[in-house]
Amino acid sequence: MKPATVLFALSLAVTAAPGALAQDSYQRARNDYLLHCSGCHGQDGIGNPAKGIPQFKNQIGHFTRIPEGRAFLMQVPGLLSARLSDDRAAAVTTWIIREFAGPSLPEGFQPYTGAEAKRFREARPADVIGKRNALYGELLGLGYRFEQ
Ligand code: HEC
To answer: For the chain, what is the mean pLDDT?
Structure first.
């Protein structure tokens, strides 16, 4: 092949690679998590329940089972104060769920969209902790288990 043909073939390969873009946004979400969230929530999503930082691992997915719970995950102060764009806020929250939910991930979980990020963040409840406790109780009542 002539160099020009090789270049053309390469550019086709790059544009066509289906995973390339997904990989970039996955990396960016991971970096956002490490930079803005892991200081409190831990690289492994274990948090620090004794200090009031809830564990993500194996339980965060339960919240997405009910609409208010899905919204709540984007209304927490840590996400708001990181001031990420709607798309990045959606991506980091989706990343947390995919990475840490484990068996709590409901079948058919849909990634968060930027439009949801905007809507949920604008409609945040005044009492986020009260909201969390209410959702937690509701999910326990539905039979979902939390480790803490
Ligand atoms: C300064 C410490 C701190 C940082 C940084 C922080 N969080 Fe949190 N996060 C908390 C605390 C404390 C809670 C529990 C109270 C609450 O629900 O607001 C919490 C709760 C949460 C919850 C709800 C989990 C549950 O089980 O209730 C999510 C989701 C969350 N944070 C996401 C994030 C994301 C995303 C970031 C980074 C963009 C982040 N947090 C950064 C301290 C932090």
So the answer is: 89
C-alpha 118/C-alpha 120 separation (Å) is 6
Q: Is 49 in the pocket of ligand 1 (CB under 6 A)?
A: no
Place of tokens 């009492």: 127
Nearest partner of 100 among 141, 51, 63, judged by Cα = 63
Report yes or no: 104 and 60 within 8 Å, Cβ to Cβ.
Answer: yes
- Tell me how far the alpha carbon of residue 29 is from its chain's centroid: 8
pLDDT at residue 10 is higher than 60 = no
Please give the Cα distance from 141 to 83 (Å, whole number): 34
- Alpha-carbon distance of 34 to 103, in angstroms, equals 23
For residue 10 the two structure tokens come to: 């390469």
Radius of gyration of the chain (CA): 18
Q: Which tens digits make up the pLDDT trace of 33-75?
A: 999 999 999 999 999 999 999 999 999 999 999 999 999 999 9
Q: How far does residue 76's CA lie from ligand 1's centre (Å)?
A: 6
Question: Which residue lies with its CA nearest to atom 28 of ligand 1?
Answer: 73
Q: Is 6 in the pocket of ligand 1 (CB under 6 A)?
A: no
